Amino acid sequence: MSDKKSDTHDLEILVEVARQMSETFELEPLLLSIEQAGRSALDCERATIFLYDEQSDELYSKVATGTEEIRFSAKRGIAGEAAQTRSVSVVPDAYADPRFNREIDQKTGYHTRNLLTLPLVTPDEQLIGVLQVLNKRTGDFTSSDERLAGALGSLTGLAIKRQMLLDEAAEKQKLERDLNIARQIQQNLLPKRNPRLEGFDIAGWNLPADQTGGDCYDFYVLDDNKLAVLIADATGHGIGPALIVAQCRSLVRALADVNSDLSRVAARVNNLLCEDLPSDRFVTLCLGVLDAQAHRLDYVSAGHGPQFHFRAGTDDVQMYSASVLPMGIMEESDMALAEPIQFKPGDLFMMLTDGFTEWSCNGEQYGDDRLIDVVQKNMDRSCAELIQLIYQEVLRFSKGSPQLDDLTIILIKCTP
Fold this sequence. Notes:
The protein folds into 2 domains: about 5-170, Beta-Lactamase, CATH 3.30.450; about 190-415, 4-Layer Sandwich (Phosphatase 2c, domain 1), CATH 3.60.40. It contains 9 helices and 19 strands. It has helices at about 5-20, 25-40, 75-85, 105-110, 145-190, 240-255, 260-275, 365-375, 385-400, and strands at about 45-55, 60-65, 70-75, 90, 115-120, 125-135, 195, 200-205, 215-225, 225-235, 285-290, 295-300, 305-310, 315-320, 340, 350, 360, 365, 405-415. It is elongated, with a radius of gyration of 33 Å.
């Protein structure tokens, strides 16, 4: 065949390969298409595609005619040399070449006579992998085969890179969809509205730092005069902590239905979390029961604090630290109640997670003092209004710095 006819033939092959690859939009079928195209274009018995793993600096097979997956150093053997030099390599006698790895033939029972190895690269010379074709059916590989292989390598390298990027984008979109679903589920677990309890104004609010958060709050009506309140913060934020606080909320609700003793409920929740959580995970939690007739809040604070008690008509603010250890750390831990909060008309009690006070700007945290000042100046506001005012003041302080932690808050105000 003349050079002109050979070039025309090669061009026709490349056009057909490009057409086949343009019809494939998944990586596995694309690799299979390339493997088949390589065997057909170069008239060979077998072909193997090795993709390049940049992290481990290894080549591994995704498609190999007649063999299982193979993985080895990208600096080893004939394929490794093609990867390192970015050049086509022709071996006319495989068993006479010391670089040839005979183990694969021994495992498969196949006998390799000759082979052609070509790097799969992008136009900017990024290594995608290596295509290796074995045993040309009509004698030895020719210079025409080498030229065709070089063009095929560039074409397929670009196609594989394109498909990897498409797969990566699709996986990211799927992850975004899954996270949005998780966020919707988590948000649906939060109270749909603020509770009504005679003599009290009560409000809660939550804003996660990610699609899902490690904070939650809950209100649970026990009877006409009593309301259970819960605020919890699992270590970290994101999908893992979100699952933990969802479990914590469910446990509290289930146990509160059958036991009115706060301390026992908290102790049982702690033991169950200790069984389930890994050693590097825990939950801080404040669980209380507000008695409207007695104007009293009984609560247990497991590693959660501070809580703030604002006295009406005065500048007096009492801060209460945690009464017991966080949950999920030590089984059979004492979950004793904290000193109860006795409300007088106009008093306000605040429970919140540390995302508010630890929000930083230029290395300085918002802190307790700014928070206390905002509340004291706006004690006449409703709890829902005051929560939004606190959030806006934190935003103003942050000057656009990112929210790095979840925000959750509960305000309980004894109305005159």
